[in-house]
């Protein structure tokens, strides 16, 4: 059924006059540039990919949680510390939800944040360099899914646990889960100037699953909303046992109140062990520090800070409209969307109209806080975004469609099929006070017949809809890399002008940098050999090195002396148990090589940098361990 549906819509429309009209809408002529950047999460690639809209052209993959041989990220000595955790070196993760920094609820384009779902981490990426600058591990958390969403002025990036776990972790019977496990919601403060992350406090919630979250905005600024499921606290066969309750909850958290409590000395410091990894742009080097404690907050100690909003039925997405008035819960086992009203929520809290409590946390009455119900007619609602013109767009996984509906009247205005099984959707700025509208990107989980087959595995598929009219129009399909869960879009004019072009050599503070070619040298310290090397079109200095022995540990410290935009050089050494390095103009990178066999071994530049790129090479002579050949090197005479 799926594929016949695809054939009908795909092929017939490509023959129509509509198709040529649509082609114009996505066509970005050679030499012209896209109107928006789209940052897509990589899912199980652990990274972020960067696309242009409307063209669907992919510009870059930004390595975040995964080693990336294309640049040497996670392989170079400078970047290995980025992937340290309390479990040791973890060179991979599952990244779901990118979110761009905001000021007063509008995208400011300074940083983008993303979560590592598997080994709980949050990353901050610079939108000037498109490099990952910081990763903080989240203790007491597991399946870091309701993350990484930011508050209106980027005060906090929020991380919520999907799996509840024993806190602190300990050896205990799994069937004692109920009422013993905890769900940590972590608030990580963001330094307004440098963006540095600090785990300010963890709210220790009942042992439900915390699925997604969004900040309040404008009138609801100061609150944060989290969907929960498995309020049954089942620990096996969740597909049945976690679907018993007719309603689960959206947890409404007044973080301002908790912040105040914490600033006045509230909370309990608890021993913990989690990595905080920071990349320094002036030394081009990351350091990893283990943090030893975390401040935890018991919600019952801060009256008025946490409430439960009953929401049918195992809600997934939790989205807040640009005015901050409506909180939308997408019950994935329900056909209807539940919209809660922020004003009614406040009134119900003030009137103390509760419908019991769960673990001491007051439950509000469903009817008291309900703003409306969208009778969508779709199945499996997941996520909602907004166009800034009073409309909302919700994805339906099971019925494979995007449904457009009106905030306030709750009427369905339009629905369009997706191909197939859409998860998230994204409107540039659609998760802020000021959406830019124009396009919806649907991110589909299943691709099937949309592209030429490539064996059993197909890339996932994104679809672009023009939303400038009353009705949505599907105008383009493009493949995406990994599994984009969520994405964040921003007008190119905000980011492009400040994109970094080079690292200035005279600002390079890497301790092993070679700033002028006469600093190029080789030094032996016991069995460590350090090669301080520079590179410029089209040679390495030094280029021939002798006196290296089997059993040595050879460190290359290489500085790119170019000061021109888009002239990286690469470095690759035969038999190195690592990746190449791709070094940007003005930057220094290092890697280690363990020579194993006597001989004369070449290295070369991997990035075609000039007509003489193939001449950019050198040799290292490796002698047996007991040889007494002295170190020597040639400086290109
Ligand atoms: S999820 S398809 Cu990981 Cu955001 Cu909803
Ligand atoms: Cu430098 Cu090729």
Give the helix proportion (percent range): under 10%
Bound molecules: (dicuprio-$l^{3}-sulfanyl)-sulfanyl-copper, dinuclear copper ion
Number of helices: 7
User: Which sheet architecture does the biggest sheet show?
Assistant: 10 strands, mixed
- Average pLDDT, all residues: 95
Q: Give me the side-by-side strand order of the main sheet.
A: 6-7-8-9-17-18-13-12-11-10
Residue stretches low in confidence (pLDDT < 50, at least 5 long) are: 1-14
- Alpha-carbon distance between the termini? 71 Å
Q: Mind telling me the C-alpha Rg?
A: 27 Å
Strand content: 35-45%
Query: Can you tell me the overall shape?
Result: globular
Classify the secondary structure makeup into a structural class. mainly beta
Number of strands: 45
Description:
With 637 residues, the protein is mainly beta. 8% of the residues lie in helices and 43% in strands. The chain is built from seven helices and 45 strands. It has a ten-stranded mixed sheet. Strands 41-40-43-44-38-45 form a six-stranded mixed sheet, with no helix packed on it. Strand 6 (99-103) and strand 7 form a beta hairpin. The longest helix is centred in the first third of the chain and has 13 residues, at 2-14. The protein starts with a helix and ends with a strand. Mean pLDDT is 95; it is low at 1-14. The protein binds (dicuprio-$l^{3}-sulfanyl)-sulfanyl-copper and dinuclear copper ion (CUA). (dicuprio-$l^{3}-sulfanyl)-sulfanyl-copper (RUQ) is lined by residues 96-97, 145, 212, 316, 382-383, 423-424, 485-486.
């Amino acid at each position: 059924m799926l594929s016949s549906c695809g054939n009908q819509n795909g092929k017939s429309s490509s023959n129509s006059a509509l198709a040529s009209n649509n082609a114009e809408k996505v066509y970005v002529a050679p030499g012209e540039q896209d109107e928006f950047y789209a940052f897509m999460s990589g899912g199980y690639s652990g990274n972020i990919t960067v696309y242009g809209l409307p063209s669907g052209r992919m510009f870059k993959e930004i390595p975040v949680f995964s080693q990336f041989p294309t640049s040497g990220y996670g392989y170079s000595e400078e970047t290995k510390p980025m992937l340290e955790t309390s479990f040791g070196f973890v060179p991979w993760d599952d990244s779901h939800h990118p979110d761009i920094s905001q000021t007063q609820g509008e995208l400011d384009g300074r940083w983008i944040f993303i979560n590592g779902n598997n080994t709980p981490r949050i990353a901050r990426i610079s939108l000037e360099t498109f490099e990952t600058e910081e990763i903080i591990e989240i203790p007491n958390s597991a399946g870091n899914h309701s993350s990484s969403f930011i508050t209106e002025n980027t005060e906090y990036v929020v991380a919520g646990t999907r799996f509840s776990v024993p806190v602190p972790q300990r050896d205990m019977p799994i069937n004692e889960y109920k009422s013993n496990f905890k769900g940590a919601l972590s608030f990580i403060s963001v330094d307004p100037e440098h963006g540095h992350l600090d785990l300010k406090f963890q709210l220790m919630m009942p042992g439900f699953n915390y699925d997604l979250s969004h900040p309040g905005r404008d009138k609801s600024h100061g609150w944060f909303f989290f969907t929960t499921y498995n309020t049954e606290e089942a620990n096996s066969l969740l597909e049945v046992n976690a679907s018993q309750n007719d309603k689960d909850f959206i947890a409404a958290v007044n973080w301002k109140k908790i912040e105040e409590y914490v600033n006045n000395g509230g909370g309990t410091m608890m021993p913990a062990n989690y990595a905080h990894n920071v990349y320094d742009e002036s030394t081009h080097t990351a350091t990893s520090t283990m943090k030893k404690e975390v401040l935890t907050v018991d919600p019952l100690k801060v009256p008025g800070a946490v409430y439960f909003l009953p929401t049918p039925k195992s809600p997934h997405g939790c989205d807040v409209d640009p005015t901050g008035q409506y909180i939308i819960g997408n019950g994935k086992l329900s056909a209807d969307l539940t919209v809660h009203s922020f004003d009614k929520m406040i009134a119900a809290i003030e009137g103390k109209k509760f419908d019991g409590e769960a673990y001491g946390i007051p439950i509000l009455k469903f009817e008291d806080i309900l703003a409306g119900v969208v009778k969508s007619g779709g199945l499996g609602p997941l996520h909602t975004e907004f166009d800034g013109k009073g409309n909302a767009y919700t994805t339906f996984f099971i019925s494979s469609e995007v449904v457009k509906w009106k905030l306030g009247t709750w009427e369905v205005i339009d629905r369009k099929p997706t191909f197939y099984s859409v998860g998230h959707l994204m409107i540039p700025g659609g998760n802020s006070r000021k959406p830019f509208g124009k396009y919806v990107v649907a991110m589909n989980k299943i691709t099937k017949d949309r592209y030429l087959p490539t064996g059993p595995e197909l890339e996932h598929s994104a679809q672009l809809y023009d939303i400038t009219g009353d009705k949505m129009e599907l105008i383009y399909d493009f493949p995406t890399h990994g599994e984009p869960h969520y994405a964040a879009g921003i007008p190119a004019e905000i980011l492009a002008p400040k994109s970094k072009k080079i690292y200035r050599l005279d600002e390079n503070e890497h301790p092993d940098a070679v700033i002028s070619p006469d600093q190029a040298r080789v030094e032996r310290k016991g069995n460590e050999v350090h090669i301080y090397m520079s590179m410029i079109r089209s040679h390495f200095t030094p280029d021939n090195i002798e006196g290296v022995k089997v059993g040595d540990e050879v460190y290359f410290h290489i500085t790119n002396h170019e000061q021109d935009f888009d002239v990286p050089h690469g470095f690759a050494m035969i038999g190195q148990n690592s990746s190449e390095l791709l070094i940007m103009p003005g930057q220094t990178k290092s890697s280690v090589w363990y020579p194993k066999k006597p001989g004369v071994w070449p290295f070369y530049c991997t990035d075609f940098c000039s007509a003489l790129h193939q001449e950019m090479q050198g040799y290292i002579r490796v002698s047996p361990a007991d040889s007494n050949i002295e170190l020597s090197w040639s400086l290109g005479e």
